[in-house]
Amino acid sequence: MREREHLDVLVVGAGLSGVGAGHYLQAECPWASYAIFEARDAIGGTWDLFRYPGIRSDSDMYTLGYSFRPWNGDKAIADGADILQYIKDTAAVEGIDQHIRFHHRITAADWSTPDGCWHVTAERTDTGETIHLTAGFIFSCSGYYRYDHGYQPDFPGLADYLGTVIHPQGWPEDLDYAGKRVVVIGSGATAVTLVPALAAGGAGHVTMLQRSPTYIVSVPQKNPLRPLLTRVLGERRAGTIMRWILAVGTQGSYFLSKRRPELVRKAILRGIKRQLPKGYPIDPHFTPRYDPWDQRLCAVPNGDLFKAIKKGTVSVVTDTIDTFTDKGIRVSSGEELEADIVITATGLELLFVGGIDVTVDGEEVDVPNRLTYKGMMLEGVPNIALAIGYTNASWTLKCDLTCDYVMRLLNHMHEQGLRQCTAVNHDAAVVPEPLLGLNSGYIQRAAHEFPKQGSKFPWQVHQSFIRDYRAMKMKSVVDDAMVFSNPVPQKDAMLTA
Fold first, then answer.
1. What does the longest C-alpha to C-alpha distance in the chain come to?
2. Pairing between β-strand 357-360 and β-strand 181-185 as defined by DSSP bridges
3. Residue 159: which residues within 8 A CB-CB, separation 6 or more?
4. Three-state secondary-structure class, residue 176
5. DSSP states along 450-491
6. β-strand 384-386 against 117-124: which pairing, if any?
């Protein structure tokens, strides 16, 4: 009988976070054997999956890019294809791509205390073959949304509609929208990206149909500071400084929004008013009912959405859907929006750790009733870390800190001869709170399925790069909440009995 393969570290997902984890493992833990299991057949995660027109980053690339390989492209808000190539190039230059196993979906992971390791079950998505292996540590870099489909509301009358309905997550390559009437349902990042891109790509007219508006901020597509810093300091140092400038600036904007929401609200609305045609109704189309950063802000490069509205190729309708008709959509006011194509930019469906069935010694982990340690490990679950980015800043800022922390954790155990690390809450005064801290629909729909954060550190999620930098990069991995142990493997215990 063939002996099961054992890996020191098993990384889940070959997207932005997974490739970053591969770099850190090679650079900081050269002793560790590792593999990256990717359920799909390509590198890139989000940036390979989504193919809709205009797809781009909604964070600046100087913070979304890796700290160890600063983004050197011209665009601060980059196109999806450029981001995907950046991830592929990073994986190829460092040989990380040689550690990726495509078509490998992890379905179950059971931590065995007697063995001091994970027993992992994976499925080959191309052949259906089941694979069993063991791993000392699991690093989940799969994000937190479903890859197989997005969120699709049950629209009344949808079966009567004779046109084409598309969700952006399943965009068909051969879609011809030239000269067509297009309605995009939604007001989030996907909608505000799609709408001007479709208009620029030749659609006859594009209507953004929203139930309620989102805060939208125009940002320059190219940051004028980067070329100057590069000339003076060189590419690497300029990239590091740009990362800190923008990270601190974004955090400052977020905390100002929380402390002085009305001030920030007025500033955003003044900026929108300047870019729209004179007399255009800011309310209701661009005046949200919530405060800034209660939901994520949307960035539009060089005000492209507002320019399309000025040009007349895009219109905005703020109303609720009464029903689909054979020709389009009838809204609650009675108006019918005729459409050849309807695009449902209605959001994501969240999925914790890629849907892996996680158990400890055969018992299912009750994820919604567990706290998260430093936003990256689950209370009471040994040897598993989660790469979860910020909701108020770029994803990679937090993931880089998490990767660095996990490597230090692994090295500590390796050097001390330890096999198990478990975050344990000893403080009964810690109160559970929602993990992600936004009231966006896609987060609220799945909040009951996700773990919680706590009211006190290290269980509290700061949503602050500066505070996390101090707490994760400048503090020891040894603290009161992290319990280290060295369970004797079952087979070794039998030999010494």
1. 85
2. unpaired
3. none
4. coil
5. S-EEESSTTT-----HHHHIIIIISS-S--TTEEEE-PPPHH
6. unpaired
Q: In sequence order, what are the beta bridge partners of 321?
A: 331
In this predicted structure, the answer to whether residue 60 has a pLDDT above a threshold of 50 is: yes
**Whose CA is closest to 435, among 418, 454, 419?**
454
Which of 409, 419, 371 is CA-nearest to residue 112? 419
Confidence class of residue 497 from pLDDT cuts 50, 70 and 90? Answer: very low
State the Cα–Cα distance between residues 182 and 204, nearest whole angstrom: 8
Higher pLDDT, 155 or 350: 155
Provide the 8-state DSSP code for 384: E
Side-chain-facing half-sphere of 242: CA atoms under 13 Å: 31
Instruction: Give the H/E segment covering residue 106.
Output: strand 104-112
The total number of residues shown for the chain amounts to 497
Contact call for residues 290 and 297 (beta carbons, < 8 A): no
Write the pLDDT tens digit of every residue in 23-41: 999 999 999 999 999 999 9
pLDDT digits (tens, 9 = 90+) for 460-469: 888 888 888 8
**Are 229 and 240 in contact, with CB atoms under 8 Å apart?**
no
Residue 110 to residue 99: CA distance in whole angstroms: 23
The tens digit of pLDDT for each residue in 293-310 reads 887 888 898 999 999 999
Residues 62, 76 contacting (CB under 8 angstroms): yes
Please state at what angle helix 304-311 crosses helix 189-200, rounded to 10 degrees. Answer: 50
Cβ pair 476, 470 in contact under 8 A: no
Strand partners, 69: 66
Query: What is the C-alpha to C-alpha distance for residues 290 and 129, in angstroms, rounded to an integer?
Result: 49
- Taking CB atoms within 8 Å and a gap of at least 24, the contacts of 299-302 are 299/58, 299/59, 299/77, 299/216, 299/217, 299/218, 299/219, 300/192, 300/196, 300/216, 300/217, 300/218, 300/219, 301/56, 301/75, 301/77, 301/218, 301/219, 301/220, 301/221, 302/218, 302/219, 302/220, 302/221
Among 60, 59, 57, 53, smallest CA distance to 84 is for: 57
**pLDDT(489) > 70:** no
**Residues sharing a CB contact under 8 Å with residue 182, sequence separation 6 or more, in sequence order:** 198, 203, 204, 205, 206, 207, 339, 340, 341, 342, 343
